[in-house]
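Minutes, project huddle
Topic: does the predicted pose make sense with pyridoxal-5'-phosphate bound?
PN asked that the exact inputs be recorded in the minutes so nobody has to dig through chat later. Recorded below.
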Amino acid sequence: MERIYLDYAATTPTHPEVVKAMLPYFTEVFGNPSGIYSCGQEAKGAIEEARVKVANFIGAQGEEIVFTSGGTEADNFALKGIAYANESKGNHIISTSIEHHAVLESCKSLEKRGFSITYLPVDENGLVDPDDVKRAITDKTILISVMHANNEIGTIEPIAEIGRVAREAGVYFHTDAVQVVGHLPVEVNKLGVDLLAMSAHKFYGPKGVGALYIRKGTKLVSFMHGGGQERRRRASTENVPGIVGLGKAVELARQEMTGEAERLTYLRDKLSKGIRERSDHIRFNGHPQKRLPNTVNVSIDFVEGESMCLNLDLEGICVSTGSACSSATLEPSHVLLALGFPPEQAHGSLRITLGRWTTEEAVERVLEVLPPAIAKLRAMSPLLKSH
Ligand code: PLP
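Predicted holo structure (tokens), as shared on screen:
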């Protein structure tokens, strides 16, 4: 049975061209980039080349890019780095209730240390209102952090509008753009952001490497202390193959992003339309227009998301549920709860995310398998019987 992978928002396969670009940096050009001999300097050169590629891709300058171990570290760095560097100015941060855990958990850790966080609500489509951001600002506000696009429902937030609000108020603005960079055009000046997080493995680069854009002049403290790497902003010997891979992923995205976005939008719409025509008691989540080209999030009444997921897995189809599995309990998705779903409905959702190797045949196969699987699970469902 051919496996159909439809969880590209969780991670993507590394592009073979990216792997090819990385390989020499494991074996031939393995020197420490801090070494003054030629194989160290060659590695250093490769890092700087990648830095320029990443910076150009988002309209920034090389010195404004710090490589990290991924999106999570970039988010932690932005939130904690700004908070601790600007504590004397104020202790208030504005974020939203639908952020990724990398941001939410950073906020929680700051709350324990005396910072006060406002978590803005979203509307039924997951949109943040820039006027809500404006109203939440106080003279103690030092940072606004709003994600560019949500990783569960795909809604794209009005970042440029929020950027204007932040600029007018003179407050730093961070965006978690992990789901957007490499898929849609991103320009830091158009968005008006001071900090932006990205992650290579979400756009066909390797896992364990990402970057934080830090606008020149932004006051933030580092939290990785050691050597003087990354202009003293992030100590540790650089992940040279990973950074080269991120640079290559950016180069490929530059060439393929526009065409891919169009192709995926077509496939996404075919998939949603097909599901809608073949099943009842379902709802699509996320903004109908302002959303990522690759994301379908659908709530299926009277069915558990996890059972649906496992059933599709038996048919060789990998998708994700709207709820995060933790070891002991199944917590309903905080994003769907924020949209106003009651917990039992937040449990019955599927996130299907398409990508570079998704074919039209794959979408047709899902349309063949999913509706009967829903019908089968509903026939056994105590949720339906009690309805
Ligand atoms: N932010 C968002 C929106 C994400 O989707 C993810 C990945 O799931 C992250 C942050 C974390 O990125 P990483 O896996 O590179 O740490």
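Observations noted during the meeting:
- The mean pLDDT is 95.
- The longest helix spans residues 240-278.
No decisions taken; revisit at the next huddle.
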